[in-house]
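Help! Submission page says 'invalid entity' but I think these are all valid:
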Amino acid sequence: MSLTPPTISGTIHAGQVCGPWPLESSSRASDSWAAQWLHAWNAFWFAPADPLPLGLVRIATGILLAWSSAVWLLDASAFFGTGGWLPAENVWRMNDQPWQWSLYFPFSSAAAVSWVTLITLLAAVLLAIGLATPLAAAVALVGFISAANRAPLNVFGFDDVLGMLLIGLVVGPAGAACSIDSQLWRSRGGCRLSSRANLAIRLIQVHLCVIYFFSGCGKLLGASWWEGTALWGAIANLQYRTLDLMWLAGHPLVVNGLTLATLFWEVLYPVLIWPRLTRRLVLAMAVLVHLGIGLSMGMMEFGLVMLVANMAFMPADTCRNLLFLPAKIPPTVP
Amino acid sequence: MPAVASRSTPPRAMPWSVAARAVLSLALCFYFSAVVLAPLAGPPPASELANWLIQPFRPFIGGLYLGHGYRFFAPDPGPGHSIRWSMQLSDGSPLKGSIPDPTSDWPRLLYHRRFMVSEKIAAFVPMSDAPEAIRSKARLDWQPLVKGVAGHLLKEHGGTQITLTLVEHFLPAPEEVLRSQQDPDLLTPLGTYAIPTDRSR
């Protein structure tokens, strides 16, 4: 699959607005406060944007969902079947919301649960390569929610974030860049900047800020985060440990520093991720924290899915530079 | 960051009509209300107001799998848990195991999926020194879950009777590591279960 994105310049149809100047009217100092808010709201959510970052998020999410589905498939009957870890009649004890539907309720035989999981795996692969992307994204989301709602005894943070990403991919034109779809339909031309791409990437960005905000606030409830010892609790937990960092027992100030840095980074993430001046620092810290969790606690899937979500904050121009793609879009102001 | 507008550039029309943007804006407000209310009203402590506000959103939250607290490693990273089990097979021979089993649960994601079984059940089980009234009340919550796990293990291994024990693994403080101190794990019996009647003793 070629990673060449569709060209953007020179493909604007008459009457179709898809330049990098999406504001109906620029916000002026003379505008009322309410009008300025409206302009900002419209620009934030609905301005057409380069679909490349969404395409990259799609590839990574598809791979992670395919891997997750493959692992479900290793013991599908135990996770989703009638004689599994959690009998269907007890699922409500773990799911505290109504309408927590699942295809695994009607399709509960050993063969049926394997087929549903296999279809989800296939949809995830199609999503990753970007073939029949809208259908693949919808099927992947249905399969994902079915699994998560049927096996609440076996899900964790990885699944919370994967679901958030899939919703964004269903909403946006996830196959508009870096996909087989975009290569197949290239001859149709037309505008490639997309308001839906912007909407989808904004959904992921804002949801990610909500996640970090509540994760940070939750940590503020714990004394060990204030004392700077919380990271030790993760390091010394044998059930998680994949990297022996017990030597840090002799370096309490290092543990203090790492704990407090993690706490402040997480609490401030929803604020500091937006200014261009601090965004790179916040993203660099995200790489350190999540790779650290992945390597030392054996939670690589969780670490990776958080990094994929953080990819939503990568500017399209940066994505193009990293992939050695031509910068077809004029310089922009965030 | 998506490519967005420059203030120095000429104004253009938005690609969607005002009506479409208004509808989408309402949908966005609804969606993010649900996203925010779930953790706000989720794990305790939570306010009565948040619990009241979330009610109309609950079907949407449940339907889209949005009901998360996002309290990763919070409020404090605690000790890890596993469930030890010993089983009597149909031929009378014994079999022992653990959930999760780090020696056989591979790949790591499979280990974590099974690890969650013991972690989530442990969240329902009070400390062994808790008052009897609290332990009796909590048993109504965790026992059906443990019965399901016991039934699954009996079926998987062809056993006739199984005894399960929740293990809270010793989490050493740094100074205990430096002293090479190793305290015992805390054990909480989860009961003995048998087929076909799933009797709990």
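Support: the input was valid. A stray whitespace character was the problem, and the output above is from the cleaned input. Residues 18-63 of chain B form one domain.
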